[in-house]
Every structure is written in structure tokens, then in C-alpha cells.
Amino acid sequence: MFNRAIKSGLMKKDQYPFDDYEISNLKSTPNKRALTKQQFLSIRDLNLEDHPNLLLSIAYFSFLLLQSWDIFLRYNALRVEEY
């Protein structure tokens, strides 16, 4: 909108509010959310006899992990068929 106003002569270029503003300053480093191999192995090898209250959580985690893997494989199979 500002660029149009400047081009049509309704506004002077020195009134442009975004001269000192750069979008690249807003970019941040991505927050890595993936588990490390060691964290995954510690969940896999957890002794549930010592922590029976975690059984359902481990079951949900395993289910979601398998579902994500299945979706990943199906998506990549579709992409291969496109070529």
C-alpha cells in the first residue's frame, strides 16, 4: 500500500516507514525438536516395572511414532510415482 502511494505521488519516499526494517532480522535459528538417538533408546529401554504409570504414555508415543513413519513412507512413495 505504501509503495503504491509513493508511486502515485500521494506520499514522499522519505515517509516510507519500513526503510530501516528488514525481515531477515526476524529470522531465528530453528528450535530442534527431534529426539536424539540416545533419548529414543532410553525411552525404548525404560523398565516399566519400575514406572508402571508410564505404560500408557509409552504406548501413545509408540503409536504416534509408527503412524508418523507410515505417513512418511506413504508420502515418499507417492512422490516417487510422480516422476
Walk me through what this model shows.
The protein has 83 residues and is an all-alpha fold. The chain has one domain. It has three helices and no strands. The chain is elongated, with a radius of gyration of 26 Å. The two termini are 41 Å apart. The mean pLDDT is 81.
Question: Outline, from the CA principal axes?
Answer: elongated
Number of separate strands: 0
Q: Please, what is the oligomeric state?
A: single chain
Number of domain modules: 1
- Provide the succession of SSEs: HHH
> Radius of gyration in whole Å, from Cα?
26 Å
Distance between the amino and carboxyl termini: 41 Å
* Number of helical regions: 3
**Portion in beta strands:** under 5%
Largest sheet: none
List keywords for this structure.
83 residues; mainly alpha; 3 helices
Write the layout of secondary structure elements.
Blueprint: H1 2-7, H2 37-44, H3 55-82
Brief summary of the model shown:
This protein has about 80 residues and is mostly helical. Helix content is about 50%, strand content about 0%.
